[in-house]
Batch of 2 targets.
Target 1
Amino acid sequence: MTGRKPARISRRTLLTGGAGLAGLGVGAVAVGVGHELSGPDSAESAGQQTLPFFGEHQSGIATPMQAHAAFLGIDLLDPADHVTLQGFLRMWSQDAANLVQGKPGFSDTEQELGTAPSRLSVAAGLGPRVFTSPTLAPRRPSWLAPLPAFAIDRLDERWGQTDLVVAVASDDPMTLAHAVRVVVAPIRRRCRLRWTQQGFHHDRNLFGQVDGTVQPADDRYDDLVWDDGSDQQWMAGGTSLVLRRIAMNMDTWEAIDRPGRELSLGRTLDNGAPLTGTAEHDEPNFSATRGGIPVIPAESHIARAHQRTDREQFVRRPYSYDLAPEPGESSNSGLIFATYQRDPVAQFVPVQQRLSDHDALNEWTTPIGSAVYAMLPGASRDGYLGETLFGSE
């Protein structure tokens, strides 16, 4: 035992809104910048690196990707029960503010497991059904709705839309597992945990493709990622999450040769450079030809995903999953593809529509899960996640 004890404010108090987080001695310095940095550099080890909890934005969105992540899809028993929802958000705020600093959660029974936060982040978002009550309906962001039906989708409700999402990430899998339990345990009798999607991050996905290359420039986050409150004032500082689960057919992918894979991607496999370049971040030249044939095929993934307008930009955070195969199968692998953008309808959907219409990679990939969430603005030091939504209620 470490001897550390959590602040003594009861769960009942949190559930009934009687306390903010001020005075608990938790959290770090608030941040208001677009692209968040890990810190501090003087940490004794990587396991002691921390991310802030309090600030204008939630951590884990602009944060350099952690090695492991778990997305928790949660359904409320009654989406119109705002008291219960506020109670969840208060509890998660208190627990997250402690956990990211390597301190125990409020009802932490295994507090030794959380002493190395390893850049732990806990971010929460709301699904469309939360906004079906007469009180919250006028506060629903205009873009918060299921994505259009894409022809390539083979969606399984097992990975579908939920009322809430909590995105937990850390460089340490034990820290991550512990934080997930702290998030889930206090609420398990008051809601339904529909799914947990766990993944790991590497510069490459399981197809060997260098992944997540194209990202917004650091000076575009305020414009492209963070909500400015013009649609819904309470969302200022928040963003949207599109979460897609994409199954990858390893058997058929491995059956084609390397040149065939690179033509499908439009990039080299060794360093992710466009087929017209030499380095990963070289700008692709889609008009270049060799022997009269385009060097980058028009149907390649890079050509179809390439932005057509300035607004078609978003943060890509891909996590691979590799699970035990189903009976009779040899793999159960894929990608948990999380994107963050101010407006998914204007920024994500046009790109996804092109990929659905025609993308060479579609032969080996199948979207099986899809959900959209309003990721809450960050919490102030004397507040909690979601306070701006319920503040005027």
Note: The longest helix spans residues 82-99.
Target 2
Amino acid sequence: MRKEVMDYLEQRPELRYIVREQPQWYRKLSRDPAALQELENESKFFYGQTFGQKMDRLHEQIQTFSRLVQLFGKQ
């Protein structure tokens, strides 16, 4: 892997963790260093930071709160 890519990964520990967890990224970045942007997009999905994943979490929190209100409303 090129030194620039290694230095970039050293500055971004969350990306380095993904490369360690999924070794296919090491091979891909070794062959194509321009794939860093693709890795960053993958990291958003990996850490649940996409808009859809955030909306799913919000929906689950609203459902949980609604159930709590129903539970305490019956007593």
Note: The chain has a mean pLDDT of 93.
